[in-house]
Amino acid sequence: MIVDEPRLPGPLRDHLISPVTRTALRVQQETLGAVRGFLNARGFTELQAPIIGPVTDPGVRGAKQVDIDYYGARYKLMSSAILYKQAALLACDRIFCVAPNVRLEPPETASTGRHLVEFHQIDVEMAEASREEAMAVLEGLVAHAVSVVIRNLAGELEALGRDTGAFAELLDQPFDRISHTEAVQRLESAGHPQRGAAELAWSGERVLSGKATRPFFVIDYPKGSRGFYDRESRTSAGVLRNFDLIAPEGYGELSSGSERESEYARLVTRMRETGENPAKYAWYLELAREGLRPSAGFGLGLERLVRYITGLGEIWQVTPFPKLAGVMSP
Ligand code: AMP
Ligand code: MG
Q1: DSSP state, 44?
Q2: Which residues lie below 8 Å from residue 42, measured CB to CB, with a gap of 6+?
Q3: CA 177/CA 164 separation, integer angstroms
Q4: Where are the domains of the chain?
Q5: What is the pLDDT of residues 142-160, one digit of tens each?
Q6: Residue range 255-265: average pLDDT?
Q7: What percentage of the chain reaches a pLDDT higher than 70?
Q8: Which of 76, 92, 132, 141 is most buried (most C-beta within 10 Å)?
Q9: Quick one: which of 242, 226, 186, 188 has its CA closest to 209?
Q10: Which atom of ligand 1 is nearest to the CA of 304?
Q11: How far is the CA of 245 from the centre of ligand 2 (A)?
Q12: Which atom, in ligand 1's list, is nearest to the CA of 116?
């Protein structure tokens, strides 16, 4: 059995030669193989995601974007691939990528055990798909990845102290779905005040996650809580056709996804409502004016998924070159 690691990474050399790191990277390798196998078999085309662009995902609450000089213009490092995912559906019907993201998260996130400054998302987008179809793909994908890792790396999980019995329910029962309103009510009755019109606070999400024994979806977040690209319900104003997937045992959010807004006029309105200047998004809105395809998709955090599968205490333990908020690192 591998013993507990400290909360913050030590010197890089110690981290790289640690048996925990080696084993976690082996699990990551197996997880990515399973993800690719699952999506390839379902007709998804893997793309390489852009790293820089004139704009990036504005919906990264609390985190700052990184500017770079691009021949005299101010460009951004990608905080998520969302805009390019929608655009890519003009070329392919179903796409995925393992996309690098950079977010300058606030320093207090260095000790949450689930935030990195540099991380990866398994980004999936499907043209003409509904939210329910995207959720079904995500549910199948997570269950497949877990089952492949358990089958092929049982000894490695045991060495990490991960009891694979923790995945029994995940593997044979569908994931529950609760609405954001219901999540708020549950939190309030558990003595955790939560604003109804807002994103679930991490403290509350952890409570819900800690009580769960298999992953579950929270759906229908309110409009104020998310970016302009999550599609608003056409029948319930202010409610978004979106979802989060929350891991059990306190691991918290694994993925966020939604049906997307794709109509030009709605995108412009939603940008204004979320305080974004449409002029910044010229390339994207130009495509939308000519016609973006309706779609649904999600971003599944690779390091979050591997941390959950390995059962490790800290997300940095599953990455070779950890970057934690406010910590100077190679
Ligand atoms: P978001 O766009 O914030 O919903 O992020 C999509 C997914 O990326 C989340 O569900 C997480 O799995 C992952 N993620 C977001 N921020 C971070 C972070 N700072 N460190 C590691 N993973 C993250
Ligand atoms: Mg999210």
Answers
A1: P
A2: 94, 137
A3: 24
A4: 12-318
A5: 999 999 999 999 999 999 9
A6: 98
A7: 98
A8: 141
A9: 186
A10: 12
A11: 9
A12: 20
Closest alpha carbon to 132 in 218, 259, 245, 305:
259
Residue 258 to residues 125, 261, 318, Cα–Cα distance (Å)? 10, 9, 27
Closest to 151 in 3D by CA, of 253, 33, 254, 316? 33
Ligand 2 centroid–CA 29 distance in Å is: 24
Mutational pocket test of ligand 1: of 202, 256, 315, the residue with most ligand atoms within 8 Å of the beta carbon: 256
Is the C-beta atom of 319 inside 6 A of ligand 1?
no
Measured CA to CA, the distance from residue 298 to residue 313 in angstroms comes to 25
Q: What is the pLDDT, as a whole number, of residue 61? A: 82
CATH of 12-318, one of 3.40.640.10, 3.30.930.10, 3.90.1150.10, 3.30.1330.60: 3.30.930.10
User: Tens digits of per-residue pLDDT, 176-216?
Assistant: 999 999 999 999 999 998 888 888 998 899 999 999 999 99
Mutation choice for ligand 1 from 118, 255, 308, 324, CB with most ligand atoms inside 8 A: 255
pLDDT at 5: 46
Residue nearest to atom 8 of ligand 1 (CA): 301
Query: How much of the chain exceeds pLDDT 90, in percent?
Result: 92
Please, what is the average pLDDT of the chain? Answer: 95
Ligand nearest to the CA of 322: 1
256: Cβ below 6 Å to ligand 1?
yes
Give the model confidence (pLDDT) of 31-88 as tens digits. 999 999 999 999 999 999 999 999 999 988 889 999 999 999 999 999 999 999 999 9
Closest ligand to the CA of 255: 1
